[in-house]
Amino acid sequence: MTGMESGVTEQDTDGRRLVAVVVTHDRRAQLQVTLSRLLQSPKGQLQGVVVVDNQSSDGTADWLAAQADPRLTVHRSVTNRGGAGGFEAGMRLAMDRFDPDWLVVMDDDARPQPEALAAFHALDLDACEAVSAAVYFPTGQICDMNRPSRNPFWHGQEFLRTLRHGRGGFHLGPAHYEAGQGLEVDVTSFVGFFISRRGVELAGYPDPSLFLYADDGLYTLRLRQAGGRILFQPKVRFEHDCSTFGARQRGRFQPLWKVYYYHRNLLMLYRLAAGWLFVPVLLIIVPKWLLKARAHDGERARFMGLMLRAVRDGILARTGVEHAVVRRWAGSSNVSRAKH
User: Fold this and answer.
1) What stretches of the chain show up as alpha helix (H) in DSSP?
2) Are residues 236 and 272 in the same domain?
3) Residue 172 DSSP class
4) Which one has a higher pLDDT value, 161 or 48?
5) Which range of residues forms the domain containing residue 253?
6) Are both 85 and 159 inside the same structural domain?
7) What's the CA gap between 116 and 122, in Å, rounded?
8) Residue 19 in contact with residue 46, Cβ under 8 Å?
């Protein structure tokens, strides 16, 4: 770990004590932009930053070691624990070291827009335990992968819209981003996700065994089930520079091992969201998933093996499979380069 302790825990204003958590893996250039943006914020807006380095091999560790800002704390994982393990470790460390009122979490390629933290501190947050930011691409378009949603199995109106429009029926749309006022949501991403001390008490920490995908959805849905309230606040704006992110190209998962985590964790999310309706949901989605094999010429057998294991383990909520085993199922021989 790095980071000087002197003065870090002092509060310069009467505002909330906010600490940022960033998880990174082999994206030093993106991390440099994000960390610079965060540390440009005055200490009254941001008390500290915790960076979890998931075993980067691109010089990230050396670059971080050379940073002198006293608000920065760096934790280098012994192994690459994926985004889920990184956020779990980072949130625990931030709570232990800084004792903040609020945390804000983000990927290494995501960062607050210049006035976002000031907008957060201006909010009246007595009625919620968490805040979901409005996330955009650098071009100004809404970042689809970070759109918050309402659980259609909990809300009749959203359920009917989902029957008619599919995914668009329960995710927030452009009108919600333009409204300028808060809206209660059930599921959101770990890009621009603010959670209070009370929220952490209710939900605990992300499940590190998920490794990658849906860890944020499962965490925020569990927070809601525990009685926590999450408000989407369009005035708090983040940007996500993920235009080059290539987890899937033309329906093809690259690298192939991501097939397992993506579908296993989604099944666990669907079970939590759907409750007793999980079985009919399962019967609808699994046949559609199996058809994805058509996009994997030359590796369809391995794709199907990963998919069937994902379905089995998702139904059983089995998350104890080591990453090395998943890579072996996928036929991977090189070192993993997960997103985090």
Assistant:
1) 28-39, 60-65, 82-98, 116-121, 156-165, 174-179, 197-203, 215-225, 258-274, 278-290, 300-316, 323-329
2) no
3) -
4) 48
5) 248-329
6) yes
7) 10
8) yes
